[in-house]
Specification:
The complex is a heterodimer of chains A (271) and B (248). Chain A is mainly alpha-helical and 271 residues long. Chain A contains twelve helices and no strands. Chain A is globular. Helix content of chain B is 75%, strand content 0%. The longest helix of chain B has 34 residues, at 99-132. The chains are: A mainly alpha (271), B mainly alpha (248). At the A-B interface, helix 2, helix 4, helix 9 and helix 10 of A face helix 2, helix 5 and helix 9 of B.
Chain lengths: 271, 248
């Protein structure tokens, strides 16, 4: 089986999982819905002449506040791409696990892992390709030109647009790295419960990383906090984050480190 | 199963407590309570707030509740959907064909395990706060109310996950939906909209001693409890209906 065949097979398996469709729908519909709610709230605050009622008044921020919904979708994609291989089938069909069939068809384990990683990134890219433009367009349509934040007021039109594009790409990169982290941890645990719980909880407002950041500045090097500036600017609960590029590189280093561990485990362990 | 409902509950309890994930979750929830209270105390000291001496140990332990929600949710989801993997549910229904008894027995078993887990975690948090120097006041009605409320909230939010898992017939879908709802959707929506008061996590937080009325967005504890029970009632009714009518 060639590398292309392996990727094609993994892609077909992933896209035919119901959980993948649900994860992508949650990421897209959830992001759009939360953006809509946020945008309507911002527009209402601006129309009533009380912008102090909301944390921001710019249209792009209405979407970037909804990024955690997409993160949930990315986590689910990363988990199910690997976790589905380890799910025990019905006793009617032998009670086996798909991973044995997969490794019979493609015995070289590392190309299988690489193909799964590529598929997870591809699925996140497709999701982000729909969710991000749709949410930003919706936010602009609802809030219109009435909103502006402090940052956007300083930088003029084209620069503000460029900043929004950079942050939108950053959000997609954050989702992709989170999906790969979920995938790597699932390879090690052979079960999706741990990565799904830890990653969803830690990407919420009750993040343990955020709590640790109040105790030690080293917490900003944890993957979720390191990468947060890829899309977030001033409206984050964490005030000591790394710069976007540096933070993105730290998060990527965590991700590829975990993938290396996953590769080592998958290569040496009995399935 | 020829015995009564007690046998069904006992059987479900044995199944639940022998799931490795449940045992690990119990330990993890207790460990998380200790860690969160310890970090909270360290934060209070490092930021010059005078340390935990001025804080009641019960209040300190209750600050860990938002972090502990994942524990009962995992137990609830495992209790509701673990049997769908590998078709184990069919064996359970051969042993006890009365689906209403199985459903009620599983819920009862969940309530026992989740209550023990939540009480153990709160107790561990309380002990950690006491060791760290938090004020231990004489046990009064308010402390009892907040402690029972925190345990009750944790059990109820896990019951929500239990019902979701029965509807979705899968551990991972149940976890994704419930964790996403409780940890992401509710906090994100609560900050910007007027619907915060009808969100289950926001409504239930008053039970666990949350004092910020703006953050929890419900006028009083009873309203919050009604809203949370309403969510459980609606999803639980759907879960019961599909469990009784659906092919396994």
């Amino acid at each position: 089986m060639t590398a292309f065949d392996t990727v094609a097979a993994e892609w077909r398996k992933a896209v035919t999982l119901p959980a993948t469709a649900v994860a992508m729908a949650v990421a897209v519909i959830g992001s759009v819905a939360i953006t809509l709610v946020n945008s309507v709230t911002v527009r209402g605050a601006l129309a009533s002449g009380r912008p102090e009622l909301v944390a921001y008044t710019s249209a792009p921020e209405a979407f970037f506040a909804a990024v955690p919904l997409g993160t949930v979708g990315a986590v689910v994609i990363g988990v199910v791409v690997v976790g589905s291989e380890y799910t025990v089938n019905s006793s009617d069909s032998g009670g086996g696990r798909q991973i044995t069939t997969t490794l019979t068809a493609a015995p070289r384990r590392l190309p299988v892992l690489a193909a799964k990683a590529l598929v997870a990134v591809g699925l996140v890219a497709v999701t982000a390709g729909v969710a991000v433009p749709a949410s930003l367009a919706l936010a602009h349509a609802v809030v219109g030109g009435a909103g502006a934040n402090a940052g956007a007021a300083i930088v003029a039109g084209a620069t503000a647009t460029a900043d929004t594009v950079v942050r939108a790409v950053g959000a997609a990169v954050y989702w992709a790295l989170t999906a790969l982290t979920a995938l790597a941890v699932t390879v090690v645990t052979r079960n999706g419960i741990v990565p799904m719980t830890v990653l969803i909880v830690n990407n919420s407002l009750v993040s343990l990383s955020l709590l640790l950041s109040y105790v030690t500045p080293l917490a900003r090097y944890l993957p979720d906090l390191a990468g947060i500036r890829l899309f977030a600017r001033e409206h984050v609960a964490f005030g000591d984050a790394l710069a976007p590029l540096a933070g993105g590189l730290v998060m990527a280093a965590w991700t590829f480190g975990l993938l290396a561990v996953a590769a080592g485990v998958l290569h040496r362990r009995d399935v | 199963m020829t015995g009564g409902f007690g046998d069904v509950v006992a059987a479900e309890l044995v199944k639940l407590r022998t799931l490795p994930g449940v045992v690990a979750t119990l330990g993890g929830t207790v460990g998380a309570a200790v860690a969160v209270v310890a970090v909270t105390v360290a934060t209070a000291r490092s930021t010059g707030e005078g340390g935990p001496a001025g804080v009641d140990a019960v209040a300190l332990a209750c600050r860990a509740v938002p972090f502990l929600q994942a524990g009962p949710i995992i137990i609830g989801v495992l209790g509701g959907a673990a049997e769908y993997a590998g078709g184990l549910l069919r064996t359970a229904l051969v042993a006890c064909p009365d689906r209403r008894a199985v459903l009620a027995g599983r819920a009862a078993a969940y309530l026992v395990v989740a209550a023990l887990t939540a009480a153990a975690a709160l107790g561990a948090g309380l002990t950690t706060g006491w060791i760290a120097g938090a004020a231990v006041r004489p046990v009064g009605w308010a402390a009892v109310q907040v402690s029972v409320g925190a345990v009750g909230y944790l059990v109820l939010v896990g019951l929500l996950g239990h019902a979701v898992a029965v509807v979705l017939r899968g551990v991972l879908p149940g976890l994704a939906v419930t964790l996403g709802l409780v940890f992401v959707v509710c906090p994100v929506l609560a900050g910007f909209t007027g619907v915060a008061g009808v969100l289950p996590e926001r409504a239930g937080r008053l039970l666990a001693g949350a004092s910020d009325a703006a953050a929890v967005a419900v006028p009083d504890l009873v309203t919050g409890l009604i809203v949370l029970l309403g969510w459980i009632g609606v999803i639980g009714t759907v879960a019961a209906t599909v469990f009784l009518r659906r092919d396994v």
